[in-house]
Amino acid sequence: MVSLTSLPKFDLSTRGLSIKPVQFGLSQKNVAVHTYHSFARGNRGGNPAGAVMNADHLTDQQMQSIATTVGYPETAFIQGSNTADFKVQFFTPNQEIDLCGTATLASFSELFRQGKVRPGAYTMEVKASSKPVPVTVKSDGTILMNQLLPEFSTIVSKQEVADCLGLSPSVIEGKPPCQVVSTGIKDLHILVKDLATLQSIQPNAQKITALSKKYGVIGLHVASLETKHSSTIASVRNFAPLVDIPEESATGVSAGALACRLQEAFQLFNGMNETLDLNFEQGDNMGQPSEMKVQLTIQEKRITGVQVGGKALYKGENTVSTPDDTSSID
Fold first, then answer.
1. Top-level CATH class of 23-142+312-323?
2. What residue ranges do the domains of the chain occupy?
């Protein structure tokens, strides 16, 4: 076991998050939270996430309390399911969300580490979909998650977005430049003219929160087609203060939606049938370099499949206590 304070290179204070004390009752349940850095580039970086096994007997309130206590951007709670191989619920420090790529990687990496799954195809029950979501586990530990087909909805004015990011509207590009897109989670997607502009963003958390509420999105996903690494198609930053994530170093579901948006806007592939493999970079400015792999399936010039994947680095385990009359779970 390692303590929360000894987990490597995750300074909660830099993310605007904090470890909050748990209020104990007369009896308590000890819950093991397995920590991963998902979508890590090489042997460093990635986005911190927690995975809790055997979470069937935890209430939603207990799950939220645990997620708040550890303070990771997302924590997943893995349970049994009557409709899929597993049921997974996802919590940020302040609320439950319907789907999360970062915590899906953590979940299936932990299942793989414990020998609960082997290389192959699995399904998970999530709130974002009425049908089980396919997940593929590869022998090298790579996890691939199917996403919902893209939904393109509200177009938002450049001025509204620019005010939130400390930018001039003139540096926001694309047709349309700002649009809500979802492949399971709604984000407002913005394209800026270059990498310097992306790096210069000064996010206003209060304004981003208000804009997110107005348009029913989790946050703002900002991209530049100029990148730091030659292997990636876009460099991105993601801001979601509405769910207590000031900035996130890797956002898998959003990467899938961005890939769909780029295909629709720029026709990356113009043929009838093709599979596109796209890589996205994120987190370099936070000192947590990350890379998300997206695969788009194109049939008759239409997107018919979206997969997002990568690897997660295991960082250790910590124990959180929550009031209960039963014994520990791990």
1. alpha beta
2. 23-142+312-323, 151-309
Q: Would you say 156 and 188 are in contact if contact means Cβ atoms under 8 Å apart?
A: yes
- pLDDT computed for residue 265 by the predictor: 87
User: Rounded distance, CA 144 to CA 141, Å?
Assistant: 10
The helix or strand, by DSSP H or E, that contains position 102, with its residue range, turns out to be: helix 101-113
329: confidence class by pLDDT, cuts 50, 70, 90: low
**Whether 67 contacts 51, CB under 8 Å:** no
Q: Is the pLDDT of residue 4 over 50?
A: no
Q: What is the CATH number of domain 151-309?
A: 3.10.310.10
Calculate the alpha carbon distances from 86 to 89, 95, 253 in Å.
Answer: 10, 21, 19
305-316, pLDDT tens digit by residue? 999 999 999 999
Q: What is the pLDDT of residues 198-227, one digit of tens each?
A: 999 999 999 999 999 999 999 999 999 999
- Tell me which H or E stretch contains 77: strand 74-79
**DSSP, residue by residue, 111-176:** HHHTTS--SEEEEEE-TT-SSPEEEEE-TTS-EEEEEPPPEEEEE--HHHHHHHHT--GGGEEEEE
Nearest residue to 238 via CA among 13, 71, 39: 39
The amino acid at residue 82 is N
